[in-house]
Automatic annotation (TrEMBL):
This is D-alanyl-D-alanine carboxypeptidase. Residues 29-53 are annotated as: Disordered. Residues 1-24 form the signal peptide. It comes from Rummeliibacillus stabekisii. InterPro entries: DD-CPase-like (IPR052179), VanY-like_core_dom (IPR003709), VanY/YodJ_core_dom (IPR058193), Zn_M74/Hedgehog-like (IPR009045). The keyword Flavoprotein does not apply. Pfam families: VanY. Residues 99-225 form the D-alanyl-D-alanine carboxypeptidase-like core domain.
Length: 246
């Protein structure tokens, strides 16, 4: 079986544009997009070899989104984990609200942080599809689609629609909200080192831009539960790598 796995069998997405293909998942971010192309392995699994040959050469646009892809009727779960990414968008109707378990975990995280002198605020958590439509359209109107794609997720593609994504900042340092300056602060470093104990992972780590499809965001955390979060942290993985979809 193993001899069927060949390097040459990996299919890669075509790149419509190099610049701007790796984009932020949050709004109001201040970073410039990376110029690295998105390179996607469609499958590692020899069992899907036959199917793989039928996969059309998916093209991505300048925003890193698959051209012609429509929002699905159902949200995508893999091994019990809800996935929201440029490859796996959410239905417009998916509206769970903020996840109570994630909120509870965030409270516990904050209680532990305060013992070390840090106080966090989750300044953006659940965001509905309709709200993302409003925001995205306003950005497009103001700055044009190309520019808007650099700092705002398109409706259906934001992980904030899952209710499991928490944008975290330090109380009193609002200037660093949604800014990678946060990751360089003592509070940001504490969070990066400890969030997994409470079930949160840094969703878009530095150096994993081609895996997640997003630039590094030191403030955007995703709740996956302590067991998975600890494993992902220990292995220095992303959710995609943990689920074997990259
Ligand atoms: Zn975010």
């Amino acid at each position: 079986m193993k001899k069927h796995v060949k390097k040459s069998s990996f299919a890669f997405l075509s790149i419509a544009a190099l610049a701007g293909s790796i984009l932020a998942g949050c709004n109001d971010i201040k970073q410039e997009p990376s110029d690295k192309p998105v390179q996607k392995e469609v499958s590692h699994d020899p069992a899907t070899e036959k199917k793989k040959t039928k996969i059309k050469d998916e093209k991505v646009d300048a925003g890193g989104y698959i051209i012609g892809k429509k929002l699905p009727k159902k949200a995508t779960y893999m091994q019990g984990f809800l996935v929201a990414s440029k490859q796996y968008p959410l239905p417009a109707s998916y509206a769970p609200g903020e996840n109570p378990e994630a909120r509870d975990a965030f409270s516990k995280l904050n209680a532990a942080a305060s013992l070390d002198g840090f106080h966090f605020d989750a300044f953006s958590t659940y965001r509905s599809y309709d709200r993302q439509v409003e925001l995205y359209n306003a950005y497009v109107k103001r700055d044009g689609k190309k520019a808007a794609d650099r700092y705002s997720a398109r409706p259906g593609y934001s992980e904030h629609q899952t209710g499991l994504a928490f944008d975290i900042g330090e109380v009193g340092n609002e200037a660093a909200y949604a800014d990678n300056a946060f990751g360089k602060t003592e509070a940001g470093k504490w969070l990066a080192k400890n969030a997994h104990k409470y079930g949160f992972i840094m969703r878009y780590p530095k150096g994993k831009e081609t895996v997640t499809g997003y630039m590094h965001e030191s403030w955007h955390f995703r709740y996956v539960g302590p067991k998975a979060a600890k494993e992902i942290y220990k292995k220095n993985e992303t959710l995609e790598e943990y689920l074997g979809i990259k």
